[in-house]
Amino acid sequence: MASPVNSSAQPSSMAARSEPVRNKSHDPKKPHITDQAITKSNWYKHVNWLNVTLIIGVPIYGFIAAYSTPLQWKTAVFTVVYYFMTGLGITAGYHRLWAHTSYSARLPLKIYLAAVGAGAVQGSIRWWSRDHRAHHRYTDTDKDPYSVRKGLLYSHIGWMVMKQNPKRIGRTDISDLNDCPVVVWQHRNYIKCVIFMGMIFPCLVTGFGWGDWKGGFIYSGILRIFIVQQATFCVNSLAHWLGDQPFDDRNSPRDHVVTALVTLGEGYHNFHHEFPSDYRNAIEWHQYDPTKWSIWMWKQLGLAYDLKQFKQNEIEKGRLQQLQKKLDQKRQTLDWGVPLEQLPIIDWDDYQTEAKGGRALVAVAGVVHDVTDFIREHPGGKALITSGIGKDATAIFNGGVYNHSNAAHNLLSTMRVGVLRGGCEVEIWKRAQRENKDISFVSDSAGKKIIRAGSQVTRIAEPVASADAA
Ligand SMILES: [Zn+2]
Ligand SMILES: [Zn+2]
């Protein structure tokens, strides 16, 4: 999601009117370190040492210090509570309120979310939202700041521990954020906000609350920051790597309950990339999305309003189209027999001659089938199937002797070798096709005919006798 300290590390790719903080040492004309390949002699110049210290170094210190710091239960409870508060600052605040404007918040809620969001130590709202909008706009491309196509580890943490060329990241419009006084104030005072909300505030609670200053520093401060950072980083890595793609599989975002559990409900990421302005990530009531529940609760309290929701009809359309795509892919792996239009046209006389010559040919509804290899396997016995050889077996096959199942028609279609010239049953089928739209064929995405159950060409719905009479 974002790097701990960045407001000064990376200048905005948007030259906005009210650019609050600019990296004065950055000269866009000077070649960036990322323009050089990583070698044994320059690798350390590629590393963002400040982020390495904050994301990796400080937590290591925290884990070591935890050995000599007993964990008091009150501190443990507060750490979990503050974990949720700061985590929701990112998911409900940074992400769904500011990056996607999926709902509107009253000023007190904005201030609260900006404060606890800073306590999660993931950069300013302004910086975070700009990168996140680029991530949505340029998902999986080189302009995506944390593209999973560069590897799972890169999308999780690599993009922060290695220096990034700010020119690489795709441009996005953040003029609305530049107009939000809470966002601008937090961006200008970001370092102060982080130190206070990340470290001092939890220490004050545990220290004044029950005298556990050190526990507050190590558990509610350092280790809580580490966990909330790793959890939200999972939205960039895990949510683009693990799970299903029920809405669109052209890009990497995926839905998975494990990611949802880790990220306070941000795990339905395939849905989220399809419908980013929806205030929900989980659309089913039983799916875990405490971020959605919080926003809904704030609405009941009058703190949030204008919660955006995509129409269920649109959501189901997306789901259906993806299902259709999967069906098409599955259909293309199956043998449906040679398409009728590619079959050779055989004269009735030639058909009979070949059949008499020993080839087990059976004509059903004007289509000629070679059943030589199937005779011994015929469930109805050898005698019945051989009685149809060299004849028009349309009526026999369609109820005259045995009304064959859809599966039998499917199997028969894989044996077809030709169509009869002017075959009267083919004519009947053609006419039926014209008259009865149910039999008209639809093509799938590969242009192959979709053969629905009961609509094989060899299946004659009406009794053949009446069709003859028609
Ligand atoms: Zn994503
Ligand atoms: Zn998003």
TrEMBL record:
Pfam families: Cyt-b5, FA_desaturase. Belongs to the fatty acid desaturase type 1 family. Signal peptide: none annotated. GO terms for cellular component: endoplasmic reticulum membrane. PROSITE patterns: CYTOCHROME_B5_1, CYTOCHROME_B5_2, FATTY_ACID_DESATUR_1. The chain crosses the membrane at residues 49-68, 80-99, 193-211. It catalyses: octadecanoyl-CoA + 2 Fe(II)-[cytochrome b5] + O2 + 2 H(+) = (9Z)-octadecenoyl-CoA + 2 Fe(III)-[cytochrome b5] + 2 H2O. Keywords: Electron transport, Fatty acid biosynthesis, Fatty acid metabolism, Heme, Iron, Lipid biosynthesis, Lipid metabolism, Membrane, Metal-binding, Oxidoreductase, Transmembrane, Transmembrane helix, Transport. It is a multi-pass membrane protein. It is found in: Membrane. Residues 1-33 are annotated as: Disordered. SUPFAM superfamilies: Cytochrome b5-like heme/steroid binding domain. Its main location: membrane. This is Acyl-CoA desaturase. One of its GO terms (biological process) is unsaturated fatty acid biosynthetic process. Its EC number is 1.14.19.1. Residues 1-15 have a biased composition (Polar residues). Gene3D superfamilies: Cytochrome b5-like heme/steroid binding domain (3.10.120.10). Residues 19-33 have a biased composition (Basic and acidic residues). InterPro entries: Acyl-CoA_deSatase_haem/ster-bd (IPR009160), Acyl-CoA_DS (IPR015876), Cyt_B5-like_heme/steroid-bd (IPR001199), Cyt_B5-like_heme/steroid_sf (IPR036400), Cyt_B5_heme-BS (IPR018506), FA_desaturase_dom (IPR005804), FADS-1_CS (IPR001522). Expected to bind 2 Fe(2+) ions per subunit. The keyword Transferase does not apply. Its cofactor is Fe(2+).
